[in-house]
Amino acid sequence: MVLSPIEKQIKEKIERIGTPLKDWDIRINYGIKTGFNDAFIITGEKRKELIEQDPKSEEIIRPLLRGRDIKRYSYEFADLYLITTFPSLKIDIEQYLAVKQHLMSFGYDRLKQTGDKGARKKTNNQWFETQDTIAYWEDFSSPKVIYPNMTKFLPFVYDDKGFLTNQKCFIITGAKVEFLTAFLNSSIFKYCFRDDFPELQGGTRELSKIFFDKISVLEVSEETNLQFKDLIFEVQKLKENKELELKIDNLIFDLYNLTNEERNEIGFIEIQ
What we know:
The longest helix is centred in the C-terminal third of the chain and has 17 residues, at 222-238.
């Protein structure tokens, strides 16, 4: 893609000041691959039913966000939950008989991980466990950025409520994820880096980790990070607030010492 002189000037400036995300103290992980979502993802009604049958069920059922639920700065919870029988947790399914019965209702032959026809792909995991080990399961309880793996709209949401995500999402955990949420939702990010992600059919972008690693972002102080944390909480409360988002944009423009010409060139980029 050929950039105009002002586009090239801005992009080079942002990249020069920033540090590639691969060098940040962060981790980017995929959401959870169950191998059979119909069995492991349940409604709020089914969750209630399982807990009524066996209160221990609540220990291994957690709220879930999908890629389609993620909005800019916010999310729409669809009252869905995930049964967290991750192999890395080494769960004894006999301690959760209501959950065991629910899973068995889909049939052992469908749930087994043998690679046989009609079964899940071959792994060393047990029939009641998710397909992936999920060794990083604790990261879901940490403050994090959640974003869809494929999207037209480049939405990012900050989560400190411990949501799990399905395989249609990535999560970012580690240092300064509050500022990172603001930056990734900003006009600067969309202006400079949108085209760094491959465009698929229908204008959808693929936001894979391999492309994120190369994105350069200014590393800020903890004081600045907390300032942005307060702002993203305000935006989340209001769902959408252009005035606040403009304020965030302008604060990021200030951090990057953009000229008036550069600020006017970028403008305020809403969902594209």
